[in-house]
Amino acid sequence: MRPATLADVARRRNAGEDLPGLLVGFLDTFYGQVRLGTAQTAIDEQPDDVSCRREHALLGAIGEHLARRWHLSVPDWTSHPSRFLSEPYFTSPLEDLKALMIAESPLAFRRRLIFTEAEPLRRARMPVGP
Question: Phi and psi (nearest 5°) for 15?
Answer without folding.
Answer: -85, 0
